[in-house]
Amino acid sequence: MYQHLRPTWAEINLDNIAHNVQAIKQRLQPGCEIMAVVKADAYGHGAPQVARTALEAGATRLAVSILDEACELRGAGLSAPILVMGYTPAAQGGLAASQDISLTVYERQQALALVQAAQAAGFPLKVHLKVDTGMGRLGVQPDEAAALASWLHGLAGCQLEGIFTHLAKADAADPSPTYLQLQRFELALAQLQQAGISVPLVHAANSAAAMRFPSSQFSAVRLGLALYGLYPNAQLRERDFDLRPAMTLNTTIAQAKWLPANNPVSYGGRFVTQRPSYIITLPFGYADGFSRALSGKGSVLVSGHKVPLIGAVCMDQCMADATEVPEAQVGDPVVIWGNSQGQSITVDDIAAILDTISYEVVTLVSKRVPRVYFRHGQVSELRTLLQHTTAIAGENCRVTF
Fold first, then answer.
1. Which of 278, 281, 284, 279 is nearest to 251 (CA)?
2. Quick check: is 25 catalytic?
3. Tens digits of per-residue pLDDT, 124-146?
């Protein structure tokens, strides 16, 4: 079976996703669940594919940011509990309840409107109460959490399924802000207990906290960045967590040609060759998620050699100076991030150039970049613009570009 893809593609190693779930799970306290965070299309990796793999590997719940993402997972046949962690408009309460999707609440008026919409649709609504212990985003203040939880507990048509907070600095070198947030959260939980309110699911830890702060684990952790094999900070690499990156990004050479000295390259002519140069053009640009801020910065891998990017990154193309690899030809593979013959470029390398975080780098990869999914060493599925997903079976499957 042959599938013809655009010659720029991302490879998603689902075995590494499964490995990362298990690597974290074995370090958790007994009984602590993993909620796999698959918002933003699973950080660009593909939400249904990652969610299914994570659940098979030991995760028990899923988390997303918006209701549309949760409905996509239900449409893909996933029946596991799903929490929408962000804002949901009141009118969507009925849809969420009909799909057995839990919503985040943090104030009475907002919660009441969601529950009323669910009741009008004929369904009870499951909710998680969010407590703002220091992030300053969505959430009820800790000293008001018990009163709101008590009110939710008595609200007809409302099922208080969980309570949670979000840690703002769990990846920072200084642990004291995280300990302070956890202290505030635990005080709120104690007030709930004093009021006789029992909440089935309590969660606070993101990836960094799950790896650093055992006291943050409670009854579940929300596994986000680590699920994809990326470390929240460099220090966590030293904590004996064997995480494996799940995404590599590849393209091919569209043209290779010698240009004379003093030849401008790309828009604005900001780069000018200083010598006769072997320039390769790559069919990959900022519309694919390769930021224009990378213009003239960083490298790509050609036959195991790091060759520098030159000129302005265009919407659909970028250029590199392959003078040191003159044997490179049209159609040869190029690694944007990943490994090639002993050399590597990581997502963290690119994030450092952009002065951003790895989260942004992977989520920027646009939907027009095909995803090729590997499971047990073989291509298992393709996702493209033309044919959203295609399951692949059989040992003789080949992919051509």
1. 284
2. no
3. 999 999 999 999 999 999 999 99
